[in-house]
Structure formats: structure tokens, C-alpha cells
């Protein structure tokens, strides 16, 4: 019996996505703070960089989702096509009459 979770890292791990979101926001907020401090403006660049980070992350998430769904749909279409071909082949085989054996009469 396994009580410990799998230690395999998967690319679509939700914890990784959350950490990526938080780190990205913190980095862009820090950059905005540095630019605001350098230029003498208060929260303008922090707000702009924050919005840029959020929008960029959601665009990335949307494109990743779209890519996964296209791959999934292509896989499902291939499975449907294979199933249709095998069903058609089985129907054709069943429709053919079995060859009759002629026995020679003595």
C-alpha cells in the first residue's frame, strides 16, 4: 500500500503554476517599484507592471490550454477514425458469405 504521493514532477502540476504566478507578480512588482523609485513616480509603474504580469500569465495559460485541447481533439479524432475503420472492416467481413464446401459424391 502506498501512503506517500508520487514524487514524479509533471509539467502540468498546479502547485508549479501557482508558484510561477506568484513569483512572476512579485518580480514585476519589484521592477515597477525600482522604476518608480528611479523616476520619482509613486505607484504608476508598479500598477502597470502588475497588470502586465497578470495579463501575460493569463494569456500564457489560455494558449497552453488551447494547445492541450487541440492535441486532445486530434487524439480523439484518430481514435474515432480507427474505431470506424475497424467496425467497417468487421461489417464487410460479416457480410461476405462463407465459402461452401462441395463434397464429391461417390
Describe what this molecule looks like in 3D.
- The protein has 106 residues and is mostly helical.
- The protein has a domain at 15-76.
- It is built from two helices and no strands.
- The chain has helices at residues 14-39, 44-95.
- The chain is rod-shaped.
- The relative contact order is 0.07.
- The mean pLDDT is 83.
Shape: rod-shaped
How many helices in DSSP terms?
Answer: 2
- Describe the sheet with the most strands: none
Strand content: under 5%
Mean pLDDT level: 83
| Approximate helicity band | over 70%
Count the beta strands. 0
Q: Poorly predicted ranges (pLDDT <50, ≥5 residues)?
A: none
Euclidean distance between termini CA atoms: 71 Å
* Class from helix and strand fractions: mainly alpha
The secondary-structure element order is HH
Oligomer: single chain
Based on CA atoms alone, the radius of gyration comes out at 30 Å
Offer a concise description of the structure.
The protein is mainly alpha-helical. 74% of the residues lie in helices and 0% in strands.
Defining key terms:
106 residues; 2 helices; rod-shaped; mainly alpha
SSE order and pairing:
Blueprint lengths: L13 H26 L4 H52 L11
Helix pairs in contact: 1-2
Amino acid at each position: 500500500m502506498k501512503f506517500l504521493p508520487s514524487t514524479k514532477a509533471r509539467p502540468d502540476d498546479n502547485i508549479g503554476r501557482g508558484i510561477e504566478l506568484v513569483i512572476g507578480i512579485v518580480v514585476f512588482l519589484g521592477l515597477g517599484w525600482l522604476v518608480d523609485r528611479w523616476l520619482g513616480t509613486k505607484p504608476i509603474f508598479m500598477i502597470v507592471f502588475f497588470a502586465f504580469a497578470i495579463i501575460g500569465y493569463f494569456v500564457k495559460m489560455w494558449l497552453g490550454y488551447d494547445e492541450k485541447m487541440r492535441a486532445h481533439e486530434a487524439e480523439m479524432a484518430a481514435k474515432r477514425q480507427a474505431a470506424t475503420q475497424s467496425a467497417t472492416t468487421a461489417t464487410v467481413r460479416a457480410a461476405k458469405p462463407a465459402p461452401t464446401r462441395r463434397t464429391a459424391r461417390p
